Amino acid sequence: MEKKLFITTAYHEFALKSYEYNVIDYLLKPIPFERFMAAISKVVDRTHPKS
After folding, report:
1. Rounded to two decimals, what is the model's pTM?
2. What parts of the chain have a pLDDT lower than 50?
């Protein structure tokens, strides 16, 4: 099973490097609830793709 990963941090300078690790999303703190839910939706969509 493929792992689904998103990163949360206060440091924007690591964002580009994070995608070398195949992350789904990169969330910069403070994280608005709507942005957090968008990241969760990406994980769900990749786990259960619509047919």
Report:
1. 0.78
2. none
d(CA 37, CA 33): 6
Q: Are strands 25-28 and 6-9 parallel, antiparallel or unpaired?
A: parallel
Written as six digits, the tokens of 38 are 């968008």
31 CB burial (10 A radius; 0-12, 13-18, 19+): middle
Give the pLDDT of residue 51. 66
Q: Which residue has the tokens 């709507």?
A: 34
Q: Tell me the one-letter amino acid at 35.
A: R
- Give the residue from 46, 45, 6 showing the smallest Cα distance to 28: 6
Q: What sign does the dihedral 23-8-26-36 (CA atoms) show?
A: positive
